[in-house]
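@channel sequence for tomorrow's demo:
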Amino acid sequence: MRMELTKLSEKELLKLLTNKNEQESYKITNEVFEIIEKSDVFYPYFDGFLSLVEGRTSFMRMRGFAFCIALAKYDTENKIEKALPTLLSLLKDDKPTTIRVCLSSIKSLVEFKPNLKKEILPYLDTIDLGKYKESMSHLIAKDIAQLKNLLSR
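structure tokens (generated this afternoon):
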């Protein structure tokens, strides 16, 4: 039986999303994304999702980032603009997968917030490719180049 996530308080939902059972958290994450795709019901939870960006695991950090970015299309209060430094701090994460997910998510952010392109560009130059294995640093460099191209348009 599928839980009705939209009836949960922010605190209850965040508890589920930060559950130590990663499989359960992943399932809930996918359901939240499905809901965000169709509705702004979780926009009031933006700050709670933003708090996940500083989470203990890379999964938590990526979730928080991706939820905030997904909510950009409903962002009537310019919360993304205010949270941008916190969100983009993940571009310095120790996990290369986190960097790649963030870079990919930024593409959808600028679709709804094109005014942020010039603010995002300088952050891309702060990514230290030297701290990742060559196989990953090559992929991250490619992601950065593609995103810079998109942001420069």
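heads up for whoever presents: The longest helix spans residues 134-151.
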